[in-house]
Amino acid sequence: xxxxxxxxxxxxxxxxxxxxxxxxxxxxxxxxxxxxxxxxxxxxxxxxxxxxxxxxxxxxxxxxxxxxxxxxxxxxxxxxxxxxxxxxxxxxxxxxxxxxxxxxxxxxxxxxxxxxxxx
Length: 119
Known about the structure:
- The protein is mainly alpha-helical.
- The chain has one domain (2-117).
- The chain is built from 5 helices and 4 strands.
- A two-stranded antiparallel ribbon has the order 1-2. A two-stranded parallel ribbon has the order 3-4.
- Helix 3 links the parallel strand 3 and strand 4.
- It is globular.
- The N and C termini lie far apart (59 Å).
- 24% of the residues are buried.
């Protein structure tokens, strides 16, 4: 067991944190490629931190929302997410990246996109 900020982290979770910190993989997956916000976290690191320090259903707060990496990963892991940012662009990007669409919404978007693809 390793301790970070007084919280115990099991060896496997700690190793994922370390791997995420040192990862040089390009940012990808989920909605991370929608917009290239500067100075973004590695999703691998964020996912490992959320798994190590929270449980499903917990609220994850990101006080510097930026490109919404933390919010996206938190939601994907079954956590609730809240983010704050002074930058209106960051808020817009976060809303776009975390918007949950119904099956009917997705079908509408696909029909709309196909209209332009077939031209």
